[in-house]
Specification:
single chain, alpha/beta, Ubiquitin-like (UB roll), four-stranded parallel β-sheet, three-stranded antiparallel β-sheet, 28% helix, elongated
């Protein structure tokens, strides 16, 4: 909801009893943004039929807080954070992998397939498309407010309270596979001339075979990580 509409009564008119989920999404809020609904002070699920005079309170997702004693509108939170970034979020997907988070980039998938994959693999679907998050197959998702990839990264870290879980340079930026240590002998002939002499530590991606080392690109990414975390804490 717009900031001016939050935390105060908002009238909603309807002619026949409607599920509370339909009323919430009718106001433009995807159901994946909702974790707790109270109707007249009682916790209800998405299917609860609204009646004239009902007072409804809607709360956002509490992925980092355990509210399991209270009835939730989804099965359970995702304690193992995994993401699925939609077609237009390729840079954000790379940044999340840089931070060590399992992130699939669905650049070749349509909306239906994105929804199915998010559900099948229990991933949080990240998107700028509210309509995509309103698909019933999507149980965990987040609508990004920012449009700049670096600001989107900070937004995701803050929204899901991930600063303490960041593990930089542990995942392949190209294919998302966890990296493994590699010896100089293993990377010989697979890195530019002189790199194997100037550097001691290397990592290899078992998925695509890409080799990583502490070069100038590594230093630039380290600065990005430090700047992002300093503003997310």
């Amino acid at each position: 909801m717009p900031p001016t509409e939050r935390g105060r009564p908002l009238a909603y008119s309807f002619y026949t009893p409607v599920p509370v989920k339909e009323a919430i999404e009718g106001l433009g809020v995807p159901h994946t943004e909702v974790d707790l609904i109270l109707v007249n002070g009682e916790s209800v699920d998405f299917g609860w039929p609204l009646r004239d005079g009902d007072r409804v309170s809607v709360y956002p997702v509490f992925e980092s807080i355990d509210i399991s004693p209270v009835l939730r509108v989804r099965p359970k939170p995702l304690r193992e954070i995994r993401f699925l970034a939609d077609t237009h979020l390729g840079r954000l997907a790379a940044y999340l992998r840089l931070m060590g988070f399992d992130t699939v980039y669905g650049h070749h998938l349509g909306d239906r397939d994105l929804a199915r994959l998010a559900s099948a693999e229990r991933r949080i679907l990240l998107t700028r498309d509210r309509g995509l998050l309103m698909r019933s197959a999507v149980t965990h998702g987040y609508w990004l407010r920012q449009t700049n990839p670096r600001l989107q990264l900070r937004e995701v870290l803050e929204r899901f309270d991930l600063a303490s879980l960041v593990a930089p340079f542990t995942r392949c930026l190209r294919c998302n596979t966890p990296l493994v240590a590699a010896s100089k002998q293993e990377v010989a002939g697979r890195v530019p001339p002189g790199v194997d002499e100037r550097h001691r530590e290397f990592h290899r991606c078992p998925g695509c075979g890409r080799i990583y080392w502490d070069g100038s690109h590594y230093r630039r990414m380290s600065e990005l990580i430090a700047a992002t975390l300093s503003k997310s804490r």
